[in-house]
């Protein structure tokens, strides 16, 4: 459901044939790359639009989508999970990242089955580890990517995908091959060149290993590249990475592709407003949360998405919740970076019945400074108990002059889903948005069936999908 004056339609859904593989499960992060971006160049002031200039194509491009996880019940058509080779192959192919060429035809966004660009990166795709911990656990070759939650876009035209809950694929989760998926080759930020299918995808160990939610890139006036990240775990930390190499020319792709391979990783001490540099050792980077806490960084309330204000460069951090400390509704923090070592901060918005939202997650600015926010109340409690006031997880907007009052609901998701991964076309006319795991709390499937049949309706199995919202 979208607000009056807006329209939406489904662009891609789990299982769709993209011409070179299938669209994966549980879409999360999306990033739109205009098809003419390499020719148009980049605009460093438009990070919220993927650094794409406003005159780049808003009618055709490459939509890169993360596929975070899968529900074995729906992936295997309600058949018991038996660990067979066929089921494992389906599971391996359901996660990772997809690159999808799309075009707006007669007002509707549609997949273009392009044999050159459309492709999948999944749990079996070879990756190369870079940076100080590149040789960890038998690296630098790593097999596959998984738990791809949110991400970011670089000002040299690549996409960054963040591996978050990698522990869900270990013994306490789906329990894939421990000799492969038990290695510390997961929990990193990966970089993919959407315009070059032949490029080897990489995992950057200099950015640390933790439950990465997303990454937001900022380029300072002198060309210094800074990345902000959160560790989506209760009582974990906010991180900043400052690259050793500066961005001199956005068109120098060969050189820019190495920028995130070396630099200094910092963790935030909110009690003193300072950034603490962490050692660039394999041990510290492989367990960055422990290194940060040991160094005096502040454990906070599930720092998920971090985004940069388009006018002043301040950092907005979605602190989703932390029931261990009585923070059930979450809040948004605004951080103003001073230099590499200091910052100031304050609470920008607080969730709860008074504001109308709960559990902020993915954030996205528009060029006017309005803040768009998706919520992430867990499937088993969304719309119930203390969360009844909000209803289903939704897309909200906090206007540029927000003063702590009510927020505005722009779209509501289907039952027991999470809305994730908003992104813009360069002209701001279309927002792409993922609908993840509708009916995720379905119980007693044998008797009652799924609690959701979105998006097909009827008796269809629920499927995650990416939608396009227009009318902005």
Description:
- The protein is mainly beta and 472 residues long.
- 9% of the residues lie in helices and 36% in strands.
- It has eight helices and 30 strands.
- The strands form seven sheets. Strands 8-7-12-11-10-9 form a six-stranded mixed β-sheet, with no helix packed on it.
- A hairpin with a 5-residue loop joins strand 28 (418-424) and strand 29 (430-436).
- The chain is globular.
Point out poorly predicted stretches.
none
Q: Give me the side-by-side strand order of the main sheet.
A: 8-7-12-11-10-9
Number of helices: 8
Distance between the termini: 15 Å
Rg estimate, integer Å: 21 Å
Question: In percent, how much strand structure appears in the residues?
Answer: 35-45%
Short description:
With 472 residues, the protein is mostly beta strands. It is built from 8 helices and 30 strands.
What are the main properties of this structure?
six-stranded mixed β-sheet, single chain, five-stranded antiparallel β-sheet, 8 helices, mainly beta, 472 residues
